[in-house]
Amino acid sequence: MIQIIARKLLEVALFLLLITFIGFLFLRLAPGDPVLTILNVDELSVSQEQIEQVREELGFNEPLLLQYGAWLSRMLRLDFGPSYATGQPVMEMILSVLPATMELAIGSLLVMLIISLPLGSLSALYRDRWIDQLSRLLSIVGAAVPSFWLGLILIDLFGVRLSLLPTMGRDGLESLVLPSLTLGLAISGVYVRLLRSSLLDALGQEFIRAARSRGLSEWRIFWAHAFRHSLPPVITVFGISLGSLIGGIVVVEVLFAYPGIGKLVVDSIRQRDYPMIQGYILVMAVIVFLVNTAVDISYRYLNPEIRWKEREQNG
Known about the structure:
mainly alpha
């Protein structure tokens, strides 16, 4: 156990070091000058001496590795510095909008589960019947339609034509419905097909035939044995596709003017707000690592073969 924990800590350290350095490098190579954002002026209304003075104060004239080392030392103290655009501490700004993004992510996952679990299960149970054909068609359409286009359709239908739901901002549960539907519908198609395929594979295993020979009911065989056996591949794909989910959240938040971390970072990119962008990269990297760690733990729980192999290796 100590070796596993030590290996995980080493992995997270290397992962965060690599992802933050790549992000830091790309930001410095991107066009635009953040000094103009800090001075809140355009290039023609300020002298070159003033620009150089600010650059010197912020250390932009230092070599890139020294700049990254200075930022890394502050980051280890959880000091991301002030935002160039607002002057507020970056960590406070991120923490203030993170709950809104978490609400949207949870709402989208609930929509995905409500759609994927019934359709994927029924599609596997009634293979090649009308429900299977319908679910496969819906999953293909859902996977092919871009989330921003789907969001525009929902805005036009439920917001403009029917005036049933708000289309902008964050004001109660009603304002969460359309963004959650947009992202949940966009990602559910993949999981419908994956769950169907995984269930069909599980239903063809030897232990399922052994359960039938013992006289167990089909529903008990399906839910107590086949369904649990089909979950590890689905959970694994979820961990891998988490980056796509985060990217989808950014698009949806901008589309619905939803005040989450995705919209905040898009505004920061427009303003060349380096501290905010770097803080976003680090926070998202930590979230991705934590979710993937939870996926690994759940995979061990759902797949007893892994636990048996670990016990055999440990003697």
